[in-house]
């Protein structure tokens, strides 16, 4: 008996197979799909550079505290639900989700703070208090944002963006006209609102995740719909529970995981990859999906003749921010804070300019603080608080302990002053993480944290392609390719790649 792998000269050929399977039936319904699942193309193994699964969504524990290392916002719950439903699973069988209320708290100058309610009608009332007529304007703004979400997220982002022809059909063109892609978020928001606090509330996802509002297409108001209507959620135990759920599902499907297996080189057979080489082992490969840093794999792992892009191409990409992070354990509970806190007590546009226009360490930075122990007793010892601080910064800046310590003192002093309490005397654990670690742990291009900025000419077909143009079996997923940065888009990119590979069968 010969197996398919034993046959020669099948490269680039379609092979028609007839499979007759004996499966258990009851009243005409298949009761056990094991044999069917065994013949479906599936990921055989995953190679992980680090000692823990999850990439930027890893976790670590120290002195009884559990810290999510990166993502902390659970937005766009429908994307997560779809991922599990595609496998016939319910996400609620894997993780316990709770909707946060308030969604988050924002601190403004002059000791003013605003809690963003989960209830939409309450939010309308809040907007009305800030600006007469803003409640009705919010209806109009969100209605358009919902159209963009339905067209963009439920249709366009699931396209591989390999050719402009994908978008040349009546449905897509009609949808695209509704996306208002040639207008900026800056102008779009100001068509509806004049109050600066409202404007900052609607602009913040742009600043933290991609580009200045002036350089971001108004398409991305879909993020405001995700925030306001779909809500801010939290998986009990932390964001890493999502990773654990995905790993559990993958293992159910037979996927093997190999840790501390950084890919060093590849073996080629003409115009395809035949095996993957790590420091420890060689792995045969039918298809390769790179979810690691795209730039690193393209420039440092592939042979020159197989690179998708030139060095100059990458140098011209506009990157989203990197981050300076602090993981803090406190021996007391804090007052005057919520699960998510945004500190907009300093000039919003000045910090944006210091990230995107004239990259440098910020003079008076905005920052974000997360206190997951406010919602989850399991992530901190009894009577203690888990504190996560994030300051967005330009990528590829000089990064050292002196700089980090200076910003920690600056942020902590403002945090203490604004929340009116002593914090520094209660720190029992502290760890920092910034540009140097992003490069070391993830081979991150210029130490970026979020991928490419969401500019018009870095959207859809203008992003680095999810398929290698010279190798038949190499694909890319993650935040540097379509559809873009963030956890939900990265999940979508994996879905799109999987569908592209399945087309080969």
Describe what this molecule looks like in 3D:
With 505 residues, this protein is α+β, with helices and mostly antiparallel strands. It has a domain at 119-230. The chain contains 15 helices and 20 strands. It has helices at 34-39, 77-85, 120-130, 134-152, 170-177, 185-192, 196-209, 222-230, 240-252, 294-301, 311-315, 348-356, 401-419, 435-442, 487-502, and strands spanning 25-26, 29-30, 45-47, 59-62, 65-68, 97-99, 104-108, 112-116, 233-235, 256-258, 263-269, 272-278, 282-284, 288-290, 322-330, 340-343, 367-370, 385-393, 427-433, 474-476. Helix 4 crosses helix 8 (222-230). The protein is globular and about 75 Å long. The relative contact order is 0.15.
Features:
7-stranded mixed beta sheet, 3-stranded antiparallel beta sheet, 32% helix
Chart the SSEs and their pairings.
Blueprint: E1 25-26, E2 29-30, H1 34-39, E3 45-47, E4 59-62, E5 65-68, H2 77-85, E6 97-99, E7 104-108, E8 112-116, H3 120-130, H4 134-152, H5 170-177, H6 185-192, H7 196-209, H8 222-230, E9 233-235, H9 240-252, E10 256-258, E11 263-269, E12 272-278, E13 282-284, E14 288-290, H10 294-301, H11 311-315, E15 322-330, E16 340-343, H12 348-356, E17 367-370, E18 385-393, H13 401-419, E19 427-433, H14 435-442, E20 474-476, H15 487-502
Parallel strand pairs: 3-10, 7-16, 14-20
Antiparallel strand pairs: 1-2, 4-5, 6-9, 7-8, 11-12, 12-13, 15-18, 15-19, 16-17, 17-18
Helix pairs in contact: 2-15, 3-4, 4-8
